[in-house]
UniProtKB/TrEMBL annotation:
GO terms for molecular function: structural molecule activity. Keywords: Cell junction, Cell membrane, Ion transport, Magnesium, Membrane, Tight junction, Transmembrane, Transmembrane helix, Transport. Signal peptide: none annotated. The gene is Cldn16_0. It is a multi-pass membrane protein. This is Claudin. The lineage of its organism: Eukaryota, Metazoa, Chordata, Craniata, Vertebrata. It comes from Erithacus rubecula.
Length: 239
């Protein structure tokens, strides 16, 4: 039981921070940051929804949102948005299911097998969340790196060159955390599911055996003659 609690809390810890990292990375503005050392007056970051320029002297930040979601955007931007939003939704639901499945939460306290199944469902959702999260963040980072390398290889200078920033790293960390917590919940909790199921069936069989034995003992200690005598006593009493 102690090992089960430890696994639940470790999985909950990683699920909480992983879902938070994915959500923060999706809605922050530093997926790409300028990598040109000659630009010392400002730092320019690009996110999935807007880009911001921060003055390094006074810290003033100016952000410009992209065009409408229905406007034409690059395939990299559209697919990364879709995958990160999917990862956010799946990881959020995975964390909520995990909270309901914790033994310390008073939800279905008399149904340990159902709570274990809830933890298993949470693990599956977290594993599914890690897949689009790691795909979107790594693909975005690789695309930025390839674009920068190709420009350097052809000696092309466009004024500002980018490298992937901390929002992209945060998306990778959140996705890996989802894989870790999902693996703990699906693999390890399944072992506890088999143990709890065996205990449940053995306890049920033991209770059933006790009830059958009590019935037999009752029948043994009540012979037919005694039963007939009690019936006659009841009739005489009524008369």
């Amino acid at each position: 039981a102690g090992m089960k609690f430890v696994l639940q809390y470790v999985g909950c810890f990683f699920a909480f921070f992983s879902a938070g990292f994915l959500i923060i990375s999706t809605w922050t503005d530093c997926w790409m940051v300028n990598a040109d050392d000659s630009l010392e007056v400002s730092t320019k970051c690009r996110g999935l929804w807007w880009e911001c320029v921060t003055n390094v002297f006074d810290g003033i930040q100016t952000c410009d949102e992209y065009d409408s979601i229905y406007a034409e955007h690059s395939v990299k931007l559209v697919l990364t948005r879709a995958m990160m939003i999917t990862a956010d939704i799946l990881s959020g639901f995975g964390f909520l299911f995990l909270v309901l499945g914790l033994d310390c939460v008073k939800f279905l306290p008399d149904e340990p097998l159902i709570k274990l199944r809830i933890c298993l469902v949470s693990g599956v959702l977290l594993l599914l969340a890690g897949l689009p999260g790691i795909t979107g963040s790594v693909w975005y980072a690789v695309d930025v790196y390839v674009e920068r390398s190709s420009l350097l290889f052809h000696n092309v200078f466009l004024g500002i060159q980018y490298k992937f920033g901390w929002s992209c790293w945060l998306g990778m960390a959140g996705s890996l955390g989802c894989f870790l917590s999902g693996s703990l919940l699906t693999c390890c909790m399944y072992l506890f599911r088999e143990t709890s199921s065996g205990r449940f069936h053995s306890a049920y069989s033991l209770r059933k055996g006790y009830s059958s034995a009590a019935t037999v003992v009752t029948n043994v200690h009540l012979p037919p003659s005694q039963t007939a005598t009690s019936k006659m006593y009841a009739v005489d009493t009524r008369v």
